[in-house]
TrEMBL record:
UniProt entry tagged with the keyword Cell membrane: yes
Taxonomic source organism: Noviherbaspirillum humi
Main location: membrane
PANTHER family: MEMBRANE TRANSPORTER PROTEIN HI_0806-RELATED
Protein name as annotated: Probable membrane transporter protein
Keyword Membrane: yes
Membrane-topology annotation of the record: Multi-pass membrane protein
Domain of life: Bacteria
GO CC, alphabetical: plasma membrane
Keyword terms, alphabetized: Cell membrane, Membrane, Transmembrane, Transmembrane helix
InterPro entries, per the entry: TM_pro_TauE-like (IPR002781)
Length: 267
């Protein structure tokens, strides 16, 4: 791994960790487009670049979610009973998501990711919380909901917050509890998705040295360390900056990244 690649990944990891702490969001939607740019610039196999970016992004969430959930747990905000009901479905869905991604051409996967990011940016920009309409479903319903959250998260390399938080809020869970519980769900999403990306990527030819399945281990190591170190600084900064304004700026940046991924898929 040359020095320019290391520097690029260090900057990316720092930006992702700081943003996660500042805005309380996962880094997948930032990581995937920027990592796609970096790996493409370094002439990684074009057919696998998006798959590798998504898989490596998902793997980093294993590390960043731990520090995030600890902070929420200390405040007593995590609803562990809700997380327990959603986790079985999440583990199944997060395993299936990367398998679906493997069946898709890299360009199709890039387009799907672009649409997901554009939807998430719009959700952030409008900042609308769904009206509470019902209580949480029973065990079968929670299993199905967890499966959907996990499958989509595993497919796009994200922590699931843009899906799980609106779902829980719609089911009368208070917003701060929904955010905290969503953070707790990040680890099982990342764990199952990472194992799936390793398993389904092991038989893929032409992956670059340093790959474990679809995961590019050097990038994982660099980004995990820097993002975990910068997340607390982002969280501290959040108390002194207008976070609502920052979210709007971040949403517009997501639109730009979605446009890049759409370009990547259509060209």
């Amino acid at each position: 791994m040359d020095i320019t690649l290391i520097v690029g990944l260090l900057v990316l990891g720092a930006a992702v960790g700081f943003s996660a702490g500042l805005l309380g969001i996962g880094g997948g939607m930032l990581l995937v487009p920027f990592m796609t740019m970096i790996l493409s610039a370094k002439h990684f196999p074009e057919a696998h670049v998006v798959h590798m970016a998504i898989a490596t992004s998902l793997a980093t969430i294993m590390f960043t979610s731990i520090s995030s959930v600890r902070a929420h747990h200390k405040r007593g905000a995590v609803l562990w009973n809700v997380a327990k009901l959603l986790t079985p479905g999440i583990l199944i869905g997060s395993w299936i998501g990367p398998w679906i991604g493997k069946q898709l051409d890299s360009s199709v996967l890039a387009i799907f990711f672009a649409l997901f990011v554009a939807f998430s940016a719009t959700q952030m920009l409008l900042d609308k919380k769904p009206a509470a309409a019902r209580d949480l479903p029973g065990t079968p319903g929670m299993l199905a909901a967890g499966g959907c959250i996990g499958m989509l998260s595993g497919l796009v390399g994200a922590g699931g917050g843009f899906i799980s938080v609106p779902f829980m809020t719609w089911c009368n869970v208070k917003i701060h509890n929904a955010v905290a519980t969503s953070a707790a769900l990040g680890f099982p999403i990342a764990l199952a998705g990472t194992l799936s990306n390793i398993y389904f990527g092991m038989d893929v030819p032409d992956l670059p040295p340093g790959s474990l399945g679809f995961i590019y281990l050097p990038a994982l190591a660099v980004i995990a360390v820097t993002s975990v170190l910068l997340a607390p600084l982002g969280a501290k900064t959040a108390h002194s900056l207008p976070v609502k304004t920052l979210k709007k700026v971040f949403a517009y940046m997501l639109y730009a990244l979605a446009a890049y991924m759409l370009y990547k898929g259509l060209r």
